[in-house]
Structures are given as structure tokens and as C-alpha cells.
Amino acid sequence: MASRREPKIKEIIIDGVRALVLDMGDVVVCDRCNRDRTNSHRSGGAIVSGQALCPKCFRACVSRLKGVPAADISICPRNVSFADHVRQFRLKTESGLGVLFKAKVLAP
């Protein structure tokens, strides 16, 4: 069994600006309801414009997604848990930081 990656804060520089980035590690939290889904084996949900929506929240929001480009929606496959789908999405993003992480700009 692979070891679990814990959340950590990284300092990075983007276009000359120092920023703190929260690397969530293996932790998965729905961006709408804030429920921890890290250990859930339930499939469903999606990533919409960089926001991780658990199965329950995605069902509640699906009717409001008209107009969101298909390229901005990554629906969780049936045979993959929501948590694993989010973790796989993170790995595909540039530098592993991706749009799921919140950044705060630091004063010089």
C-alpha cells in the first residue's frame, strides 16, 4: 500500500510574485459542502472549472452547468471513487499544483 501524502504549504514564485500554495496531498474535500471525502469509496461527482464537487453536490448543481464548456468539466468515471478521481486530476495538472489549490500572495 502506498504511503499517504499529507497536506503541506509550499512557497512558489509565479511571474515574480511569491505565493503560498496549499498542496492538499491525498486529502479530498468537496469545494461546495466542505465534507472530507478522502476515504470515501463512492463514485460520482465531477471537477467543474477546477472545483471538486462530490456526488451529492454535483447532482444538486448539474442543472446549472449549462454554458460551462465541456472542456472545463471532468466527470468521475463509474469505476473510480470521487476521491481517486480528484487525486488523478491533480496529478495531471501542471507541476502537480493545479487549479484545485488555493494561493495567497505574500507581501515582499
Keywords for this entry:
108 residues, disordered C terminus, 2 helices, alpha+beta, globular, 3-stranded antiparallel β-sheet
Distance, first to last CA: 42 Å
Count of strand segments = 6
Which stretches are poorly predicted, pLDDT < 50 over at least 5 residues? 95-108
Overall morphology: globular
Question: How helix-rich are the residues, as a percent range?
Answer: 10-25%
Question: Can you list the strand order of the major beta sheet?
Answer: 1-2-6
Q: What is the makeup of the main sheet?
A: 3 strands, antiparallel
Strand content: 15-25%
Mean pLDDT: 80
Question: What structural class results from the helix and strand content?
Answer: alpha+beta
What sequence of helices (H) and strands (E) makes up the elements? Answer: EEEEHEHE
Number of helices: 2
Radius of gyration: 15 Å
